[in-house]
Structure formats: structure tokens, C-alpha cells
Known about the structure:
- This protein has helices at 13-22, 58-65, 84-104, 151-170, 192-196, 201-213, 235-241, and strands at 5-8, 28-32, 50-52, 70-73, 109-115, 173-179, 181-182, 198-199, 218-223.
- The protein is of the alpha/beta class.
- The chain has one domain: NAD(P)-binding Rossmann-like Domain (Rossmann fold), CATH 3.40.50.
- It has a seven-stranded parallel sheet with strand order 3-2-1-4-5-6-9, with helices on both faces. It has a two-stranded parallel ribbon with strand order 7-8.
- α2 packs across α3 and α3 (84-104) packs parallel to α4 (151-170).
- The longest helix has 21 residues, at 84-104.
- It is globular.
- The structure holds 1,4-dihydronicotinamide adenine dinucleotide and the ligand O=C1O[C@H](COP(=O)(O)O)[C@@H](O)[C@H](O)[C@H]1O.
- 1,4-dihydronicotinamide adenine dinucleotide binds next to α1, α3, β5 and β7.
- Homodimer.
Amino acid sequence: xxxxxxxxxxxxxxxxxxxxxxxxxxxxxxLDREPLPAAKVPDGVTDADRYVADITDERAVRxxxxxxxxxxxxxxxxxxxxxxxxxxRNNIDGTQVVMRAAAEAGVEKFAFASSNxxxxxxxxxxxxxxxxxxxxxYRLDGSELPRPGNLYGVSKAAGESLGRFYHDExxxxxxxxxxxxxxxxxxxxxxxxxxxxxxxxxxCAHLFDRCLRxxxxxxxxxxxxxxxxxxxxxxxxxxxxGYDPADNSADYTFExxxxxxxxxxxxxxxxxxxxxxxxxxxxxxxxxxxxxxPADPDDA
Length: 300
Ligand SMILES: NC(=O)C1=CN([C@@H]2O[C@H](COP(=O)(O)OP(=O)(O)OC[C@H]3O[C@@H](n4cnc5c(N)ncnc54)[C@H](O)[C@@H]3O)[C@@H](O)[C@H]2O)C=CC1
Ligand SMILES: O=C1O[C@H](COP(=O)(O)O)[C@@H](O)[C@H](O)[C@H]1O
């Protein structure tokens, strides 16, 4: 892609996984309402390409999307316990502002960070916990209707509908990635659901890279690694985007330690190493919590 790529929510967990994997690959324009410390910004991104703005600020967003070829839209409230007023503003209105500005500016490709919580309602008492286990063959594939398990999930389903609308009305290519559970270096520890929907950092960067390079119209795909435990199919991501994940939560113990027989080097050269130095202030697994949102209670 010759034109710049706008990344909203660039300072967060997903944004940093993408930038650390693909920092050198694109001409980035970064937007976040929190100023980004230098350690979170790839080399070569100038001050002019760093926007400190809220995504509900229409004028700032219009300026940020001018002349970009693609948008990866991550900014929003990521909490599954987020209250309605927050998801309405940050996730629904914010996504509408960013998508409309992108469509009106003639942006070619738009990748939207949807969530597993858009379909959390399929995890019924009858299906769980078997659903989270490798022997179980139940699969969601992206063609099913949304079935949110909370208001945060409702806001993500709304974002997917906005994407459908802006694809149909403006012919913008839109891919909604129902992201699973992103953690760095190892799958979520002692958490079956999390291990079934693990998305490793390098698979995350690779998946969004495919969202920028592939040709598609409107797609809903699942964003998880190639986990043995899974109830989301990644076939559509493979077919439509050319997604080819490298990681599998089965290569780790339930406690999150690499298994001794794991071939750690096997896929080591498939994707570029992290392209700029790690943020020394950042804990190994998480970026600091967004100061504007209190943490989800069970994430403490
Ligand atoms: N981390 C995960 O495992 C998953 C994340 N997602 C989605 O991916 C996206 C990114 O999530 P994370 O990186 O985990 O969250 P995060 O909280 O680490 O990062 C979000 C970033 O967006 C910025 N932001 C929030 N509201 C904003 C607004 N109104 N205007 C401008 N900037 C704003 C924050 O300052 C922060 O830097 C979210 O939309 C989330 O719902 C979906 C599924 C799983
Ligand atoms: O959408 C999201 O999902 C992940 C995984 O959900 P969880 O219920 O298993 O924690 C969550 O970690 C992330 O914060 C959220 O944005």
C-alpha cells in the first residue's frame, strides 16, 4: 500500500502488537486520545502523523483520514463490563465517525476490531465448558448472526453493521475482525475460554497485515491463533485474507509455560521480528490500563 495507513487506538494492546510487528512495513498515521510516548511509536513516524484526538471529534478524524489508503480502527472502550454511556460514545458513535470520514474520503480498506463478545451469547450453559475443549467440534464461522453477551458486545455488533452499511453505500472494503484474547508471549493462564480464543502478538500483526493486503468486499472473520482448542473457525480468514497463523495455545501448558517439546524455532522466521524496541515501562503482557476506563473487575 503506497498511501499512509491510519491506526486508531495506536497506544493500546492491540495497536502496539500491530506496530511492533509491522512498524517498518507501512507509512503509519497514528491516532489516540492519549499522547503516545516515543517508545510506542515506530521510527520514521513524524509528529505530523501523530494525532492526539478523540474519535468522536469529527473535524480531527476527517483531518486524520485525509489521503490515507486504509484504516485499522481499534480505538474504543474494550471492557466487557463497559456501561452503555461509554460504549455508545466510544464504540458506536466513535466508530460511526471514523467509518463515515473514511468512506467519504474514499479510503479503500477498513479493518474494524470487533470482538468475541459480539457472539458471546452462543456460549450457553449446555455448550460450556465442552466448547472450550479440543475434542469439541462446535464452530462459529462468521456467517452466524451476532449474539452479544453484554452491552460491549452489542456495541461491536453495531460496528459490524456500520461496516456493512459503509461497504454497501460507498464500496469501501470492510473487514470486521472478531478478536479473541490477545496476550503476549503465552496464552491466558489457567483460563480455558481464553486459551480457545488466544491471539498471539505475531498472529495479530500478521492478521492485520493481511487485512491491509488482501482484496475483499465485506467480511467478518475470527481473530484467533491456530489453537487446538477453539470454537471459532479461522477458515474464512484463511480464504478471504490469506491468514496463516503460526501459534497454537496447545504448545503451552494450562499454566502458560511453553511445553518442552514445542518447536519454538519452527515458525520463527515467518514474520519479521519486532520492529522497534520494547516499551520499558510496559509490563510483559499488557499495556497500562487506559486511564479513562477502570479495569474490568476480573482483570485485576
Ligand atoms: N485486547 C483484546 O484481547 C481484544 C480487543 N478487542 C478490541 O480491540 C480494540 C483495542 O483493544 P485494546 O488494545 O485491548 O484496548 P486498549 O484499551 O489497550 O487500547 C485502546 C486504545 O484506544 C484509545 N481510545 C479509547 N477510546 C478512545 C477514543 N474515544 N478516542 C481516541 N482514542 C481512544 C485508548 O487511549 C487506548 O490507547 C478495542 O476496540 C477492543 O474492543 C476486541 C477483542 C479482544
Ligand atoms: O473483547 C475483548 O475480549 C477479550 C477476551 O474476553 P474475556 O472475557 O475472555 O476477558 C478481553 O480480554 C478484552 O479486554 C476485550 O476487549
